[in-house]
Amino acid sequence: KISSYIFLIKIFTFSFRLLKFDPKKPVETFNWHINALKLCGHWSQKPENEKNTNFLYDLYSWFMVIVFLYLFLLTQIIYLVRAKNLQEFAEGLYFFLTEAVTVPMHICLKLHLDTVKKSIQKLESPKFMAQDPVEDKFVSWAIFRSLFFHRPSIGSCFICIIVWSVALFLPGSTKHCIVPAVFPFNFESGFGFYLVWIYQVIGTCYSAILYPTFDNLVTGVIFHATAQVNRLGYHLSRIGYDEKRNLNFIVVQEGRKSKNSSNYEKLIECIEHYQEIVAFCNEFSSAFMVAIFIQLSVAFSVICFTLYLVMSVGKGDIRASASVFPYLITIVFQVWQLCYAGNELTHAAEKLINSIYFSNFLEFDIKTRKLMISFMMR
Length: 378
Description:
Layout: H1 2-18, H2 31-39, H3 55-81, H4 86-100, H5 102-111, H6 113-121, H7 133-167, H8 190-238, H9 253-312, H10 318-357, H11 366-376
C-alpha cells in the first residue's frame, strides 16, 4: 500500500510539473509545440541572419513529409478509388480527410515559418509583458489553457491509434491494416502484414502529433491574444486614477496640467498596445487563415462520415464501435477548442469598450476625451 501511495504521489508531482509555468516567460507556452514540430521535421533550425538551413535536418524533414504524409495519403487514395460501395468509401474517407488537412497546414507553416517565429517571440516584448500580479493572472490563464488543450488533444489521438492497432489482432477481426489503404504486395498475412502495420503505426503517429499541434499552435496564439486584450482593458480602466493621491487634496493648476498630460500619455500607450495586438493577430491570421478554413470545412465532413459509420455499425458489434467513437470524440473536441478560443477573443474584444467606462474619464481634459472617443469608435 505504501509503495502504491508513493507511486501516486510521483504521478501527481510529475503532472504538476507539466503544468508549471512562468507568466514572465509566455514563449515557453509553445515549447511542447515547437519540440513536436521539430520531431516531425516542420521547425527548421535556421540561425538568425543566415539563409542556409541545416542540410541534414532539411533532408530528414523532406523524408518524413514524403514517406509518412504524401506516400501515406497516396495508399489511401488508391483504396478510395477502388472502393466498391458507400460503406468502404466512408471507412476510407473519414480518416483520409483529417490527414489530408495537414497538407495545407504544412504548406502554410513552411511559407510563414519566420513570421510565426517572430510573432511568438513578440510575446516577450515590452508591450506584451505583464507588469503586475493582476496582469500575471491573464497571461497565466492563457498559458494554462494552451498547455491543457495541447496535451489531451495529442493524448486522445494516440488513444485512437492504440485502439486501431490492437483491434487488428483481436479474434474475428476482418481488417488487415490500421487505416484502409492499398499496397503493391500481399499485406493480409505474414511479413507484409507486419511491415504495413509498423509503417501505418508510424504514419498515424506522425499525423497524431502534427494535426493537434497545428491546431493548438493557433489556439495558443488566440489565448495569448485574449490575454493581451484583457491586459489592455485593465490598463484602460485605470486611466485617470492616481493611487498616490489623497482624497482630501487641493488641486492646483500645475498639478492638473501634469495629470492631464499623464492621462493622455497613458491613453497613447494603450492605443499603441492595441495596434500591436491587431498586428500580432493579423500575422497569424494571414499565415493560417486558409488552412483553418479548410480544416473546419473538412472536420464537419469527417464528423458526418463518422456518424454514418456509427449508424452502420451492427448491434452488439463492440469492436467496430470502439474503433469509431474515440476518433469521433477527438474530431469534435478539436473543432470545439477552435470555436472556444475564437469566442473567448471575441468576448474579450467586446468587453474592451466597457473597460473605458470604468476609467476616471471625468478627470480628462478636452484633448484626452477626444482621443478616447476616437479610440472607442474604431
